[in-house]
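Q: Hi! Curious about what NADH-ubiquinone oxidoreductase chain 4 looks like structurally. Here's the sequence.
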Amino acid sequence: MLKFLLAFIFLIPLCFVSLGWWLVHSLIFVISFFYFFTFPYFMGWGNLSYVFGCDCISYGLILLSFWICVLMITASESIFRSSYYSGLFLFFVVLLIIMLFCTFGSVGLFSFYLFFESSLIPTVFIILGWGYQPERLQAGIYLLFYTLLASLPMLVGIFYVYGVMYSTSFFLLWGNKFLNGFFYFCMIFAFLVSMPMFLVHLWLPSAHVEAPVSGSMILAGVLLKLGGYGLLRIYPLLFNFFSFGFIWISISLVGGFLVSLICMRQTDLSSLIAYSSVAHMGIVIGGIMTMNYWGFCGSYTLMIAHGLCSSGLFCLANISYERLGSRSLLISRGMLSLMPSMSFWWFMLSACNMSAPPSLNLLGEISLLNSLVSWSWISMLLLVFLSFFSAAYTLYLFSYSQHGMFYSGVYSCSLGYSREFLLLFLHWFPLNFFIVSGDFVMLWL
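A: Let's find out. The predicted structure is below.
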């Protein structure tokens, strides 16, 4: 683990040299391939040290972080072309990779909490420095305060765990029945806010609307997964409070249904994709709170699939925005006439968002349906509506943006660069290829 951490630390000085953009981009790509071949083939922890370690859960999410960060730099070429503090932007991306690597590689609750909160700092700077509207300051404060205020009770919970066990190691959480109801809520609330769960999701649409494409990609691709990862790590503590699960499952499923209806009324591309993330994460929370094998594996699968899919959709929204200067569906319509090749990628990623085969989303959602229906037959009613409206708002997104008469204010439009097509392919390919190796995401417990 340390060799990868040192490799990223030594990338920091390269951010500010003349060819730093392509050099750092290429090196992160190479490091992510090296990491790909360190897969832990046994069901347990490997590469262990006193602070860091890696098992199947953290391996997949670290790999996802590396991949999304490579694609972030590819998508943000406009920052490099305009020379708008491109060195500083690269510095924040590398800092974010280091923080995420340390978060997913931590083997203790306190170090996990420390890096979990630290990963917000580069993200907020990316939103504030390279966002689009003046309201980005408000969005950054929303993001910071929602997550910080929710995670302070978790810090108290970690100190309580340490006071009882004299350790915060993940390995020692099994079989301990010392946690009471108050500390149960303290421990999980921070994760529910960062996923985010319905009712505490208001920071997400504002952050996505104000963030640059790179900020949206890392937010949707990785930072929403920190909450799910945290819940999967502390689930030995949650088993004693299995009876509380119905609260979170009810809020998540009803909230997912209501958010799907909100998606049907959106006219802003980024806002629609952001709200769809809330609906998907609602099913993930429901799956984890059922506390069964299908739920854990399905939620992990859907987290990785959603990370790639929503990141790709934000890239597509940005490609339209760069040409039309607006993310409104009233203006960016009829794109099939202007950019026919790009419409193919709109369709492919929209199909993945609808959980069409052979995407990983399908595998994750089937597992979560099994999990939630086995938990309670009543949940089937809400899941029917969720599945239907998930397809409905994705079709609404695709048909309104691609079909119809294009906006009369558009006189000329680039068909798309090879960089953009490569970027979208690199989102789509792992999303559909890993279904062949389903054991990678389904056999880690």
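A: A fun detail: The chain has 21 helices and no strands.
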